[in-house]
Amino acid sequence: xxxxxTAVVALTALLGLSACGGGDSGGSDGPxxxxxxxxxxxxxxxxxxxxxxxxxxxxxPDVTAITFDPILFESYTTTLTTQIAxxxxxxxxxxxxxxxxxxxxxxxxxxxxxxxxxxxxxxFDELTPAATKLWQRDGKLYGYPFSTSPxxxxxxxxxxxxxxxxxxxxxxxxxxxxxxxxxATASTVASKTGKAGLVVRDFxxxxxxxxxxxxxxxxxxxxxxxxxxCGFDAPEMVEAMTFLHDxxxxxxxxxxxxxxxxxxxxxxxxxxxxxxRASLLEKQTFGWDLVPLPAGPKxxxxxxxxxxxxxxxxGKHADAAADFLAYLTNPTxxxxxxxxxxPPRTPLLTAExxxxxxxxLKPEQLQQVVIDGIANGVVKPSHSGQAELSxxxxxxxxxxxKADADVKGxxxxxxxxINPLLGK
Amino acid sequence: MNSRLPLRxxxxxxxxxxxxxxxxxxxxxxxxxxxxxxxxxIFAFPPSLFPDDLSFSAYRRVFExxxxxxxxxxxxxxxxxxxxxTLAVSALAGYAFARIRFRGQQFLFLVVLVGLLIPSEVTIxxxxxxxxxxxxxxxxxxxILVPMLGAPSVLATFIMRQFFITLPAELEEAARVDGLGRxxxxxxxxxPLARPALGAVAIFTFLHxxxxxxxxxxxxxxxxxxxxxxxxxxFVDAYGGPMWDVQLSAASMTALPVLxxxxxAQRQFIEGLAxxxxxx
Amino acid sequence: MPVLTDDAAGRVDTRPAPGENxxxxxAWWTSRRRDQLAGLLFVTPQLVGTALFVLLPLGLVVWYxxxxxxxxADTFDFVGTDNYRKLVDDxxxxxxxRSTAYFSVGLVVxxxxxxxxxxxxxxxxxxxxxxxxxxxxxxxxxxxxxWTIVWGFLxxxxxxxxxxxxxxxxxxxxxxxxxxxxxxxxxxxxxxKNVGLNMVLFLAALQGVPAELYEAARVEGASxxxxxxxITVPLISPTILLTSIxxxxxxxxxxxxxxxxTQGGPGxxxxxLVYYLYQQAFQFHQFGYGSTLSVLLFAxxxxxxxxxxxxxxxxxxxxx
Lengths: 424, 280, 320
Prior knowledge:
- The structure holds three protein chains of three kinds.
- By secondary structure, chain A is of the alpha/beta class.
- Chain A has helices at residues 2-21, 43-59, 76-85, 100-106, 113-117, 129-132, 157-163, 168-173, 179-193, 212-215, 235-249, 318-328, 331-337, 351-357, 363-376, 386-397, 407-422, and strands spanning 32-38, 63-70, 92-96, 136-137, 140-141, 144-156, 196-200, 268-274, 288-291, 303-311, 378-379.
- In chain A, strands 1, 2, 3, 6, 7, 8, 9, 10 and 11 form a nine-stranded mixed β-sheet that branches.
- In chain B, helix 3 (57-65) crosses helix 14 (244-271), helix 4 (68-99) runs parallel beside helix 7 (141-149) and helix 4 packs across helix 8.
- The radius of gyration of chain B is 23 Å and the shape is globular.
- Chain C has helices at residues 7-10, 31-64, 82-89, 93-122, 129-137, 144-154, 160-167, 179-206, 211-219, 224-235, 237-251, 256-261, 273-283, 287-310, 312-315; strands at residues 67-70, 75-78.
- Chains B and C meet through helix 1, helix 4, helix 5, helix 6 and helix 7 of B and helix 2, helix 4, helix 5, helix 6 and helix 8 of C.
């Protein structure tokens, strides 16, 4: 029995070590095949990627294959982590904005500056600082923010008209498109039509980071820029959350907890979401509009969500992968990608360029929401250890979603729950 | 179980069953009918019970967007191989654990039972390392070998043991009188009697393999090797949002074969002992 | 390796040894030895699979639990029992274990009770039982995504469940937002989805109960309830043991629907152990600590299973 036990332990140790020690990176000679994990299985996306990859291989005979490996969005990080843990990491990976700080700070990704700057015609300076901020550490760029998508408000103009409420377009024309009036409109829609007024998409009283599209207008933030101080108990946040709480429970402008309403099925007057969702309106029967986020007490603002691409240090061909990334995101190919993903390059951020690839949106909508949004956008809250933080905030915020909640008390509770995590 | 019930009891029984069935049937109904609705109607609230007009376009797109027929075949052949393999492995082991006396039987059974106790999320990383080290990642082998021999087959063995243990002791005596060895007793006498249990095992095993989700996602990366649950996740629009009509069409088609297997296999429960003429 | 022979303690074989040898065989080749060989050969495929695909991975998980393993940072450092000390001090653990206990007990009781009820109802000689069996089984094959979407609808504050409650004059709660009701909802949704599996096992077992026994009982004037208690339950007790072991083990492993319906909330009221370990390992990238939680989960399931297994001789008919 004893010898057997020793043998098992030895075997497991051997397997464990070999699996974890085999992370050699760097350049390699001979034939190279590259693999990139994505969370989009969309046919059109993959076709474009395959085309670009084929062009790249035509000039790089040593690269024998480039495959794109789509993984379901919900299980993306889990699967990616399992592959890395199991010793089969991809060479390149898409990284979600909320995982960005973890990937950037952990050293899992290779710095890209020298490769990108060293590529002819790459025009590294075109990348807007607002877009690259999240992907940098110590002045080095660890991920390319290939998709920078601002949040805006989609309006069901039929519902707003039926309710006899002031439409956002009228309010914008009058220069009074602010949160008070937005909530008044939403409240009227809800009471007159029986549908929902305003839906913060993907919030559903769980995905709290989507509320940053509201509180940023008050100048509030989840935590300080250096990530060390909790912002939930700050006066601006208390004010913003009190406003939101009243909008939900007094004005009934937002559907309450446990009540879902889908804007794209025509069940809400307005919804806050990323502009990339415009595609859902393609075959829509109701009239719609896209407007920027309303002004908060601190004035105009915008919020963006991002996706990045990085090269994994543990991948077998990190150098070749970085070289391909430089090709995939050069000015020419960025322009091609722009039809699906708002690009981080300034020359591409013009209403004309974007209009060609976003036929559903009018030029002024693109200018107001996309171009201005990307230039001034605040990225949704993210922090290293985001998943754990996010979970802690969600649990601590739950008591807020009751009609008689003590807003200040709950927000103080959020801070005491996450302070130990922020300090890490 | 009993002879015919009086009329009043039968009506009451139907009433109870129908009422109970509502929460079971409604989601299935919703999945199937929604697959015929336009996307905008799927999330309408309250949901409509019938689609306004039947649209098969989503069903067509399922096959246009993915090598769905190929993926269907993958799932079907993997599930079939696993089911047959598991039936063999578990019937043998279950019979031995129930009816043969051998030293270490109890201990070995408890060791095997361990497989029932571990969630697959726990062992997925080591299993991935194992198959990666022998170069079997992105093949169907992990999806066949692990369910057939590993943790999932333990349930099957357990079902078979619990069934064989209820067979009357006279069986082996009769077999002995006929001069049959262990294997012949198992094959000619015990196995034909075990049809209800084999039916249950077939349903469980087929279903488990057919619905396997985490493992294919982790082990497979080429679309032509995908299995159905994995393929379902690939129907997304240009911005990564699910194409609900197409997903629900694919999901309905995925559910159908399992219901067919169920209808076929459940007949074993009725015919099981009745046809052998053996009544304990 | 020592061989445990606790069956010697448990039962005495009074039957004539099956497969007795013809007398001309050599004396050492007894039926006992033949059975020993046959038994081992019969279980070999299963044992090999268990060793490779269950015990080896399990050993590796134990090995990981002795490490600080951050997948992203690529650190794999031996830390001895640090993770276990962290486990003891983990402030979340008491509430996680409490939720796990509520969830498992509720699930097991409801699942077994409903499965047995359905099996007995559908084992009657009635027209259309095949249709009803299929209907009750159908949730098992519905995709989990579709399932949770529909129940998400039904459990809304203004959803179908409260609509029905309103019809009978009751004011239904906001199911997924209250601590107790969220737990109850997750249990019921899980049970309705999977009770068909246990129903199948009970149906298979009910077929093995000889009809003569019921006839005899009826002649003696036993009520239906007495027949159920005195005949049905004892005769299908091996299956009750089977279903309770797999349901208890299964209850401790449920998390997909929790992830979709409540994400462990509100607060942490539906954060059960397996969901917590999933968060630690795959979302927080702490594989070492996640493995430690796996070991804890395994120890709990193992203990419960061994207890059930040991108790079987008290009440399971064919095991005495």
